[in-house]
Structures are given as C-alpha cells and as structure tokens.
C-alpha cells in the first residue's frame, strides 16, 4: 500500500506492472511458439534458447554504457516492429526469413527482460525496493501463466493476429518506459518521499523537453 500513497510513485508502479506483465507474456509466448515454426522443431527450440546467451551479454554491456530507459524502450520498440512484420509473413513459406525475424524478436525481448530487473530495482525507493520488485515479478508470472494459452489459441486460429498483438504489446511497453525516469548515474531514492520527488522531477523535465524540441 505504501507504493500507492503518492501519485507519481503510484503511476510509475502501475506502468512497471504492465511492462513486466507484457514483456513476460511475449517472451514466454515466443518460446512456446517455436513448435509453430517450419523446419525441425528441436533445432528451432535450440536456436531460441541459444539466442539468449548473446542477448543477455549484450544487455550487460548496454546497461553499463548506455543507461537503462532508452535502451529498454528501443528494444521494446524494435521487438514490436519485428513482430508486426513477422505477422504479415506467417502464412508465407519463406522459412529462413521467418526464422531470422523470429529470433531477432526473441533477442530483443530477452534484452528487455534482462534490463527490467536492473531498471526496476533502481526505480523503487530503498525502503520498498524488495516489495516493489517482488510485485513486478508477480505481474510477470501472471503473463508467463497466460503465455502458453495465448500461443496455443493463436497458433490454431489466427496466428498473424496473435503476433500482431505481441508487437502491439511491445510497442506499448516502449511508450510506457519513456514515461519513467532514467536511473543511470543518478542518486537513487531511499525513502518514499525521495521516490515521489524522483519521479516528479522527471515528469517535469519530460514535459519541458516535449514542449521545446
């Protein structure tokens, strides 16, 4: 309940809930959907797992040198764009092109998921950091629970609409991330009041930036 007492902290908390839920749903839905790809299902599943190694290593480099918010938002937007393109290729027989797009989308989703753990732990004030990240992880688990059902229904009815929905979720996550403050090289909040001021200042700066391009 402490996370909901202050308006800016409450807004940030709900944004993070949505981002964690959507990112987890898309990540696990793509993992479950490897059986729908053309070719050897074992090889496709192996590649979907293999792509996570460079994605995770890349996210460590990105977080260290390029910050949190923009790389995370860019990864979500790119994943959304790739999935939108992929949705129009589902019915085609170009297996190599489709496989490449699918793995690129999985690569970007893994980067997003990895960066979220670092980003959210810095967004929440120290006093409620464990609780905040815990609830975000709970939202992610809800997305993971729904993912196999969504992938199964989409694969047997309207797969192109399913991937289009994944892309829309990723793009919406990218927009929500832009409404959150950058945490890299900044003094992180300790108390709830620090957290409220931390998010309030960023909203003011963002509004000034948008009004004065």
Task: Please describe what this structure looks like.
The chain is mainly α and 213 residues long. It has one domain (12-178): Growth Hormone, Chain: A (Up-down Bundle), CATH 1.20.1250. 78% of the residues lie in helices and 0% in strands. The protein has eight helices and no strands. The chain has helices at residues 7-32, 41-50, 52-65, 69-87, 95-123, 129-156, 159-178, 192-211. Helix 3 crosses helix 5. The radius of gyration is 18 Å and the shape is elongated. The model is unreliable at 203-213 (pLDDT under 50).
Give a concise summary.
The protein has 213 residues and is mostly helical.
Structure classification: mainly alpha
CATH structural architecture: Up-down Bundle
Outline, from the CA principal axes?
A: elongated
Order of secondary-structure elements: HHHHHHHH
End-to-end distance, in Å? 38 Å
Helix content class: over 70%
CATH topology: the name is Growth Hormone, Chain: A
Strand content: under 5%
CATH class: Mainly Alpha
Write down the domain tally.
Answer: 1
CATH homology group:
MFS general substrate transporter like domains
Per DSSP, the total helix count is: 8
Uncertain parts: 203-213
Sheet with the most strands?
none
Average pLDDT over all residues: 84
> How many strands?
0
